[in-house]
Amino acid sequence: MPTSHAGRWSALSRRPGVPSFVVSGLFARLPLAMLQLAVVLFVREQGYSYADAGLLVAGYTVAVGLAQPGLGRVVDRVGQRRVLMPLAVLFPATVVAVVLAVRADAGASALLPLAVAMGAALPPVEPCVRAAWPLLAPTPALRMLAYAVEATLRELVFIGGPLVVALVAALASPLAAMLLVAAIGCGGTLWFTTTRAVRAWRAEPHPGRRTRLGALAAPGVRTVMVGSAAMGVAFGVVAVAMPAFGEGHGSRSAGGLALATFALGSLFGGLVAAALPAPRRPELRYVAALALFAAGLVPLLAAWSIATMLAATMLAGVAIAPAFAAAYGLIDDLAPPSAVTEAFAWMGTAITAGSGLGTALAGLAIEGGGVSLALALALVGGALGAAAAGLRRATLSPA
Q1: Which phi and psi (to 5°) does residue 370 adopt?
Q2: Residues of the chain scoring pLDDT < 70
Q3: 217 DSSP 8-state letter
Q4: pTM above 0.90, yes or no
Q5: I need a labelling partner for 271 at 20 to 30 A (CA). Which of 9, 78, 110, 124 fits?
Q6: CATH class for domain 214-396?
């Protein structure tokens, strides 16, 4: 097996089925990053208030967070294709139902259940991608590279998705953006189900009696959930604090630019993670990445201008993708083989829940003490995640 970065990258890219798996998985996950913005733009164009838009987005987001682990558990029992293919039809149907209800001037109380259904029907492509990677990357070195690539692709999804929505809404209409999300959700998911890895993936039999905890019965999985939730808190705080910082320095849009540099820093970190060899002690790499993420948040507190904040957010983002890459590898090692998809889904739920908490805390902190107080909460969140992983690192060792 090649030991150099170039050699490992070449070996992975030449594995049968990898190119189509990567591209279709990237395409199929775009609705996860597109739908929130598309809903806001569409309902606002139809005359609804921001309060109505926020209610629908909240209902959709909560439903995604709650439904994905359950869908992951079903995948682990019956296989990926048998779950993804029906949802590839059901999800766009719920999007169209929301569109028709909004066009019919339905009230927010009638739209909320449809938004919840839309979130519950979102195909669990993201956990399925991560669960299927070991079929394409059978060695530890290739698998670590694959998960580093996966962490980088996640950033591309969440950068590219909103950009596509904004472009389509501007050039065509918000309605076109909603229908595009439905089409991508259907076509992308069906394309993904035709790939070699998805067709070959089989649910592992569960030894003994199943527990209600499912994947969370593994202590190491719970540790990664805590670290993921802590990172999510920091993400939520930064998402609210950056526009407020920009507004305080004369340009609210500059806050959006700071969020972009935050993601760009993560992209750079993903490239660095992909160049690293597979660790002998993956749990130590995970703890180190979380510690670096927390340390990278410190310069945000010292930024005094838009330019310095852009540099600070770029630096703060560098450890994100390496932390995710290490977490994916740990989940693959530590989750019960019969519950690996559910474990990956729980990771996404933990990030979403943490982000929601961070968003709420940031709003209160900015009102009560300003942006600096909010950013201090982001630092506390990151530090708590690193501390929890460090104290529980024994649970992260496959031995």
Answers
A1: 100, 180
A2: 1-9, 206-211, 251-256, 398-399
A3: G
A4: no
A5: 124
A6: mainly alpha
Domains 17-200 and 214-396 belong to one CATH topology: yes
Domain ranges for the chain: 17-200, 214-396
pLDDT tens digits for 48-68? Answer: 887 788 788 888 888 998 999
SS3 content of the chain, % helix, strand, coil (to 5): 85, 0, 15
pLDDT tens, 299-349?
999 888 888 888 998 999 888 988 988 898 888 888 888 888 888 889 888
Domain spanning 17-200, CATH class? mainly alpha
Residues with Cβ within 8 Å of residue 265, at least 6 apart in sequence: 313, 314, 315, 316, 317, 318, 320
CA distance 98 to 38: 12
Secondary structure (DSSP) of 5-30: HHHHHHHHHTSTTHHHHHHHHHHHTH
212, 334 contact by CB (below 8 A):
no
Which amino acid is it at 197?
A
